[in-house]
Design brief:
Layout: H1 2-8, H2 13-29, H3 46-51, H4 53-56, E1 60-73, E2 76-83, E3 86-93, H5 94-97, H6 99-107, E4 113-122, E5 128-139, H7 155-160, H8 162-168, H9 170-192, E6 196-197, E7 203-204, E8 216-219, E9 224-228, H10 233-241, E10 246-254, E11 266-275, H11 279-298, E12 302-305, E13 308-311, E14 317-320, H12 321-329, H13 339-349, H14 359-370, E15 379-382, E16 394-395, E17 398-402, E18 404-409, E19 412-419, H15 424-439, H16 450-458, E20 463-469, H17 470-478
Parallel strand pairs: 3-5, 6-10, 14-15
Antiparallel strand pairs: 1-2, 1-4, 2-3, 4-5, 7-9, 8-9, 10-11, 11-20, 12-13, 15-18, 16-17, 18-19, 19-20
């Protein structure tokens, strides 16, 4: 603690680091180099010892972890060891571990990684502890940890040095344990529904399936320009064509966009496709999946995020985009005849648009401006305009709109789903419209994918598909304010050298 306080108060950190190096050199000269140790058999973790105390009391256990605190009191000392599950106290006495070992122990620093063998007991103050019979230095920490009571609070440093963040901030470790549970819960649910997990390419010649600007690179061996994928969609649909009726993939995608609390250029997407169903089937799957994951990860179907509580136990609301804009903006796009009228109303409402935008684009702009922030409870917004949905089946009774929904909670888009377009002729026309949009200045427009068109020409059954933003789901499940709080190593600006 004294060493940490000196560092915290701005005193000579370099001197402290020098002392640690000297301690390591002394150990090595004495033939006690901790870095030559290759393994240590751990029998129990901290929380496990507390939970099973009745059966472990008086029995021998071995634990290992980072020493976070040490208090030397003459011939006996206490220290706290932090492992994956938490912290546990060890009572270290000279008479129990031997005089030479105790002398070494007193020189160990906070941050050092120790292995401790001893018996489980309760101290006079009632704390479940380990009475050490052996203490082994497994790794020497040559750096000084942040001061205990202030922790690591600087946000930028926390993201850049996540390894220190995980050591110093218990809630951070809990967040990433829950992230792992979210992923395993998703897989468990989908596997139980007969879905097959697959992997598709990250390096692609045509980055399609979403409206986003890709990262570009060059493959020297073939002298070809390639892109990092922005979506998982087009390859997964090829698998549906091939007869794999239910497929999903959880993987990283890359979009050359800005950074904010809900966007990182590298993020985790889950997409699934199911033959012989439509977007209504995807709504049912989404509802059931979210309830299952929430119950598995948080133990409840009520999610608390900031000031809001989202109730997943009730049926999720289903509303069309036109109905939502009519409700919150008091503009009925069913009564707007054409693009000219839509642009006129947009000007009156101060909605900015581009010359290339059509009626459907402007409907979407109204939705983003007036509606999204109100969608706190789980809501499916359905039937998007065809202009913003190039890979989606048109509604048979109203071809200006498509069978698509976006799933919203807390005012955020959480998922995007379609009745997938399987008409290769219609799909070619949509690609051609996207090419024109690109030429008109939309650098996020899709390009024609001839191999995908060939796959559709082979024949794809009626199919429902959906994409989930895993990082936003984890944010919701852990009440995390920013996407960088749920990414172990978020994208950061390089520090000046």
């Amino acid at each position: 603690m004294a060493e940490q306080n000196k560092a915290q108060n701005g005193q000579d950190v370099n001197a402290l680091l020098k002392v640690r190096r000297e301690k390591l050199e002394n150990l090595q000269n004495e033939g006690k180099d901790p870095f030559v140790i290759t393994k240590y058999d751990v029998s129990h973790h901290s929380e496990e010892i507390r939970e099973k105390y009745d059966e472990l009391e008086g029995k021998e256990v071995t634990v290992a972890g980072r020493m976070m605190f040490k208090r030397v009191m003459g011939k006996a000392s206490f220290c706290n060891i932090q492992d994956l599950q938490g912290k546990i106290q060890a009572y270290v006495a000279r008479d129990s571990i031997g005089e030479d070992s105790y002398k070494d122990f007193k020189k160990y620093d906070t941050g050092d990684i120790l292995g401790i063998r001893g018996t489980v007991f309760t101290t006079k103050t009632g704390e479940k502890s380990i009475h050490a019979e052996e203490v082994v230095l497994l790794s020497k920490s040559l750096q000084v940890l942040p001061e205990k009571f202030h922790g690591l609070t600087d946000t930028d440093t926390r993201y850049r040095q996540r390894y220190v963040d995980l050591i110093m901030n218990e809630e951070v470790k809990d967040t990433f344990i829950k992230r792992s549970k979210v992923l395993s819960s998703i897989r468990r649910y989908l596997d139980g529904q007969g879905f097959m997990e697959v992997e598709t390419p990250m390096l692609v010649s045509n980055a399609g399936g979403a409206s986003a600007r890709p990262f570009e690179t060059h493959f020297n061996a073939l002298n070809e320009d390639l892109k990092l994928r922005i979506s998982l969609e087009l390859y997964l649909k090829r698998l549906i064509v091939g007869g794999l009726e239910r497929v999903y993939e959880i993987g990283r995608v890359f979009r050359n966009e800005g950074l904010d609390t809900r966007h990182n250029p590298e993020f985790t997407l889950m997409e699934l496709y199911q033959a012989y169903t439509d977007y209504h089937g995807m709504m049912d799957l989404t509802e059931n999946l979210y309830r299952f994951v929430a119950k598995e990860v948080t133990g409840s179907e009520i999610l608390t995020y900031g000031e809001h509580q989202m109730d997943l136990s009730k049926p999720f609301e289903r509303i069309t985009m036109v109905e939502a804009v009519k409700r919150y903006a008091n503009v009925d796009f069913d009564q707007i005849a054409n693009t000219e009228e839509a642009k006129k109303i947009a000007k009156e409402r101060g909605i900015e648009f581009e010359d290339r935008h059509q009626k459907g684009d402007i409907l979407n702009l109204f939705f983003e401006e007036y509606v999204e922030e109100h969608l706190i409870q789980p809501t499916f917004v359905m039937d998007h305009p065809v202009e913003i949905s190039p890979l989606t089946k048109k509604k048979p009774d109203n071809p200006d709109y498509v069978e698509r929904f976006e799933f919203f909670m807390n005012g955020w888009e959480m998922a995007n789903a379609y009745s997938e377009l399987n008409d290769p002729i219609d799909q070619r026309e949509r690609f051609e419209a996207q090419e024109k949009a690109f030429e008109a200045g939309d650098d996020e427009a899709n390009h024609t994918d001839e191999d995908f068109l060939n796959a559709l020409s082979i024949g794809m059954p009626p199919t429902g598909g959906i994409g989930f933003g895993i990082d936003r789901m984890v944010m919701m499940m852990t009440d995390s304010p920013a996407i960088r709080d749920v990414l172990l190593f978020p994208t950061m600006k390089l520090l000046d050298k």
